[in-house]
Amino acid sequence: MKLQIHSIHFDADKKLLDFINKKVAKLETFFDRITGGEVYLRLDKGEHSRDNKVVEIKLFLPGQTLFAKEQKNSFEAATDEAVASLKKQVGKHKTKLREKHPTNTNMQIVDEEMLEAEAD
């Protein structure tokens, strides 16, 4: 999966970029057809709260784009939350695909039972 990371109005250090790459790459273990992704890192300056780090992640799948946005007190915490949200979305997407395109295992079981019945 090709992942593009954009830090808006600041330069992210290599340690943070490696952390984000590692976390987002783990999503491929749940669904291997992820084609790419984009990550946007921003600082919200309008608010005076501690939770001013914003992470937005887009994942590109064949025929669909998944999106998660989280705001926390650190980019690492926001990334963890966004990846957890995307993990749920990927699971729902896989479930929908399975319902839409069921495998032929049920047909194989029925065929085997019919062959056994004919043999008797």
TrEMBL record:
SUPFAM superfamilies: Ribosome binding protein Y (YfiA homologue). It comes from the Bacteria. InterPro entries: RHF-like (IPR036567), RHF/RaiA (IPR003489). Pfam families: Ribosomal_S30AE. This is Putative sigma-54 modulation protein. It comes from Thermoflexibacter ruber.
